[in-house]
Amino acid sequence: DQQVKQNSPSLSVQEGRISILNCDYTNSMFDYFLWYKKYPAEGPTFLISISSIKDKNEDGRFTVFLNKSAKHLSLHIVPSQPGDSAVYFCAASERRVGAQGSNYKLTFGKGTLLTVNP
Amino acid sequence: EADIYQTPRYLVIGTGKKITLECSQTMGHDKMYWYQQDPGMELHLIHYSYGVNSTEKGDLSSESTVSRIRTEHFPLTLESARPSHTSQYLCASSERGQGLGGELFFGEGSRLTVL
After folding, report:
1. What count of CB pairs under 8 Å joins A to B?
2. Under a CB-based contact definition with an 8 Å cutoff, are residues B96 and B27 in contact?
């Protein structure tokens, strides 16, 4: 059962326009959300994150919005650039207490392939 | 820029062979992880370590094994590779556990194909 869902496998936008990538989750215990970007033949790289106590976090062209009541977050990229073309993974973090103390379990979505056309 | 390295980047081998995927990081991170990812699918955690001589299995069952004898090194071994092991394996490290603030730093991945 997928706890983090990215329902759009792909998205295509024109350069200069806004890209909106969506992510839904089902586990109300998630308290931190992250977006990773992955280019072909490379590992994912961290892009931006948001704590569950906030509803917006902005970093340059990237903004993440969180709607806790709807269990939905979105990543906005504006303006989109061809170099933004990549797979974007949504991830959610849940705190767990174990023998090693508190640690955080990260659950990933399947990713959305963003293509920004010149 | 993250300093975490994986070798080999690509490996094609026959069924029954033993393989080791290497992962090293130079950031002094205590926590290291192995994820498995198939195309178009989510990343699944298969192993993690919170420090030297500490290893745990992740959420996705895997026939692979790991070891953590040194902080910087976290190799993954398959004793007898099978076609079902064909996948991309991603190594990662972090300072403060998964997901909180400091995030995960990923290597470039090892794409394994078992014929």
Report:
1. 71
2. no
Give the tokens for residue A21.
Answer: 């990538």
d(CA B44, CA B1): 24
**Domain architecture of chain A: domains with CATH:** 4-117 (2.60.40.10)
Q: Is B54 in Cβ contact with A106 (below 8 Å)?
A: no
Cβ atoms of B50 and A100 closer than 8 Å: yes
- Note whether A111 contacts B98, CB cutoff 8 Å: no
Identify which has the larger pLDDT, B58 or B22.
B22
Please report the residues numbered 8 through 37 in chain A whose beta carbons come closer than 8 angstroms to any beta carbon of chain B: 9, 32, 34, 36
* Percent of all residues in chain A with a pLDDT value above 90, rounded to a whole number: 81
**Test the B interface: residue of A2, A37, A103 with most B CBs within 10 Å:** A103
Q: Which two tokens stand for residue B26?
A: 């130079």
Which tokens in the block code for residue A76? 């906005």
d(CA A95, CA B100): 9
What's the pLDDT at A98? 66
Query: Does residue B101 surpass a pLDDT of 60?
Result: no
Domains in chain B (CATH in brackets) are: 4-91 (2.60.40.10)
